[in-house]
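Let's practice the habit of predicting before peeking. Look at the sequence and jot down your guess about where helices and strands might fall. Then scroll down.
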Amino acid sequence: IQICSEKKKETGVISLSTTKKRFYHRLWFKLLLAAVLLILTALSQLFLQNGLLFQMLANNERENYAQLQEELDATHTLPSDVTEIVEEEYNVYLPDGYADTPLPIVLNLHGGGLISGNKDFNRYFCAQFAQKGYIVYSLEYPLLPEVKIYEELQTISDEIHLVADTFADYHGDPNRVYLTGDSAGGLLCLY
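Done guessing? Here is the structure:
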């Protein structure tokens, strides 16, 4: 069998063995590429489907937040004119003299990329609001990837209802309630 080629006009033919070599080189390359893609697909399934890669990222971010929280606590103190009440689901920050008149209420959601952070991280921010005459609730919510984002949103909704029942206990004005958050907390506020 003889095959004509534009490149080999001088000889006019390419031997079958050259054609076979090209075919096998291309086949070998395609098989190698398919094997690499198969391995990458298997690894991505292992890491992404089981959440291992996401969990590794979350753990790293949580360690960073914990270290940053330690640094903040070492260099900052809550103002003396603010009372902090720590509950499991939320913290409350109250200004001195809060019992005299109903005060506006701020509900704060912490940041952390939805995978890290906690209600204590914004305690100094919340205390500053309290100094300005607000009752501030810092809400805790579960983090990804242990839960899905819908569970985060449901928890936040449930906690808002929970803290609404305590507004009167702290002389909060239920007609003046504000929602604030930083980073991921700001995103969650939009929902």
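How did you do? The chain has a mean pLDDT of 84.
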